[in-house]
Amino acid sequence: QKHGGGAALPLAHKDVSSDAELPPEMDLRGKATVDEVRPKDVRHVLLTGATGFLGAFILYELLHQTSGVVVHCLARCKAGDADAAVARVWHNMRQYFDVEDEDEEDADDCEIGGGGGGRPQKPVLRVTRQQQKRVRGVPGDLSQPQLGIEASRYAWLSTHIDMIYHCGAFVNSILPYSALKAANVDGTLAILRLASTKRVKPVHFVSTLSVFPGGHDEGDAAGGDDDKKQQQQQKQNKRNPKIKEDVFLKNHRGLVEGYALSKWVADRMILNAAARNFPVAVYRPGRVSGHTRTGVGSVEDFMCRFIKGCVQLGLCPDLDWMCDMTPADYVASAIVKLSLETNVYDHDAYNVRCPVFHLCNPLPIHMHDLFAVLRDDLHFRVSEVEYERWRAELVATVEKGGGNSKKSNDEDNALAPLLPLLSEKKAGMGTHHTMPSFDMERTCRLLAKHGIRCHPVDRELLKLYFTNFVRVGFLPPPGQGSGPGNGDGDDDDDDGPGASFDIYGVPA
User: Fold this and answer.
1) For the residues of 8-72, what is the DSSP string, one character each?
2) Do the Cβ atoms of 301 and 287 come closer than 8 Å?
3) Left, alpha or beta for 485 (phi > 0: left; psi -120 to 50: alpha)?
4) 20 to 30 A from 211, CA-CA: which of 171, 249, 254, 317?
5) Higher-scoring residue by pLDDT: 415, 251
6) Is residue 104 within 8 Å of 50, Cβ to Cβ?
7) 423-429 contacts: CB < 8 A, separation 24 or more?
8) pLDDT in tens, 398-426
């Protein structure tokens, strides 16, 4: 299809709700009680997605919030090669944390040094040698029967694992549902099967707010002090009420992406499992961003590539979007803390069939203000223009095969593989008035008891993120971008065509 067309990805017309149904034999009604699966005696947990972004932060929190728990990490590699599996985990962890080497002395977390544009001396987030001893590798594959785990190891896990954190998924915004089903849907079913084999194991499932149409682009709009604005917001809330945490996923109408659809099926499968007395909980993050102290995070999600594409182009669109950036440290610490609550599976206490927690930023930022930080604080020259003009310039740039630079060896625009997701008309991109917002009151109340609160998306946090983008080479130094007025400098980013976005952990 030509890039200049309209909304390129068709809605999924096929009803895939039946894929969320559990087979008749997977039923724990009358076979398990809440008392049997209390988290207080947890010694061994299984974590999927530890080779991805959010999974790495969950592993970090498990090692820091518990003192003796052994974390068994599923990683795709040669069958039976546990050393290769754990090596993949540590290779990923070193992108975000200071993983202590053998010749290092134990030390407390230390602050970033150097200042300016220099690289930090040490990340502030450390994983000690003692903590590393509590991590085991599990060779496997979410897309394979029995999670691709060899029989003897599967039998051991069935007997000894006390709790499962299912964070792994094949994250790709381009591929259809059929290509993602094996890892994201069948893999979730395999997790539930493991959870109910030999002994009951609670499952903590990391879903996404993308299970609601438009959910990945919208947080809860921050209110203003002006009375008129408050009245307008109150009227808007009546027209477009917040989505409650206890809402049941009735249908998937409006979901465009195959990834979102696969997560919708997996999410509903977990809800169906709760109805059969499985001890489960669902966590639905919004757009997960970098750490609030280091700024370190993934650069592979839609918003990061949107920002980079605009910097490359030298233009940004006048979209009326509230940008949800939910820091990874908040999301991961919340998941681990809530999972260790003694009554997290007590459905009567929560008055819901399954505990569900929405984890997005209650104080997002408008896109206009986000790009203002890029211009005013980091001095990138990115001009705001009408959406239709912006998209036309982007299409022309992509069809010429570059980043709109005078240099012929510049990389393609970061948004090139995502053009099918960008409507030809601004109206097709939605606004913060037409996109859903999410209720988080109960989750925020529970977390506040533990001193866990989400950092607002403010100017200082954005400066930290953008500075890190420059430091790791994702964005060029200001004045060296590839868009008009940004000079002729090269961007050394070499992360490929960018169709696969490793947000929750790609099992690859």
Assistant:
1) -SPP--S--GGGGPPPTT---TTT--GGGG-GGG--EEEEE-TTSHHHHHHHHHHHHH-SS-EEE
2) yes
3) left
4) 317
5) 415
6) no
7) 423/6, 423/7, 424/4, 424/5, 424/6, 424/7, 424/388, 424/391, 425/6, 425/387, 425/388, 426/317, 426/318, 426/319, 426/386, 426/387, 426/388, 428/6, 428/7, 429/319, 429/321, 429/387
8) 988 754 443 333 468 999 988 888 888 88
Q: Nearest 5°: CA angle at 431, between 425 and 435?
A: 120
At 211 the pLDDT is 92
Q: CA–CA separation, 191 vs 187, rounded Å?
A: 6
Nearest to 325 by CA among 365, 357, 268: 365
**37 pLDDT band (50/70/90 cuts)?**
low
CB-based burial label for 444 (10 Å; 0-12, 13-18, 19+) = middle
**Do the beta carbons of residue 161 and residue 71 sit within 8 Å?**
no
Question: Can you read off the two tokens belonging to residue 172?
Answer: 């790709």
Taking the C-alpha atoms of residue 144 and residue 206, their distance in angstroms, rounded to an integer, is 20
Per 3-state DSSP, what percentage of the chain is helix, strand, and coil (rounded to 5)? 40, 10, 50
Q: How far apart are CA 263 and CA 255, in angstroms?
A: 11
Q: Report pLDDT digits (tens) over 166-200.
A: 999 999 888 999 999 999 999 999 999 999 999 99
Let me know the angle formed at the C-alpha of 295 by 289 and 297, rounded to the nearest 5 degrees: 45
CA 324 to chain CA mean position, Å: 12
First to last CA, the chain: 28
Q: What are the backbone dihedrals phi and psi of residue 110, each rounded to the nearest 5 degrees, phi first?
A: -120, 155
Alpha-carbon distance 405 to 485, whole Å?
10
Token match 């989750």: residue? 443
SS3 419: helix
CA distance linking residue 262 with residue 174, whole number of Å: 13
- Residue for token pair 């990138």: 380
Whether 314 contacts 381, CB under 8 Å? yes
Whole-angstrom distance, CA of residue 182 vs CA of residue 276: 23
Using CB atoms within 10 Å of the CB of residue 134, give its burial: 0 to 12 exposed, 13 to 18 middle, 19+ buried. middle
User: Model pTM greater than 0.85?
Assistant: no
Neighbours of 131 (CB within 10 A): 19
Length of the chain: 508
Question: Please, what's the b/e burial string for 192-223 (b: 16 or more CB within 10 A of its CB; e: otherwise)?
Answer: bbbbbbeebbbbbbbbbbbbbbbbbbbbbbee
pLDDT of residue 398: 92
Q: How sure is the predictor about 504, in pLDDT bands with cuts at 50, 70 and 90?
A: very low
Cα–Cα distance between 125 and 59 in angstroms, integer?
12
From the list 157, 188, 180, 183, the residue with the least C-alpha distance to 282 is 188
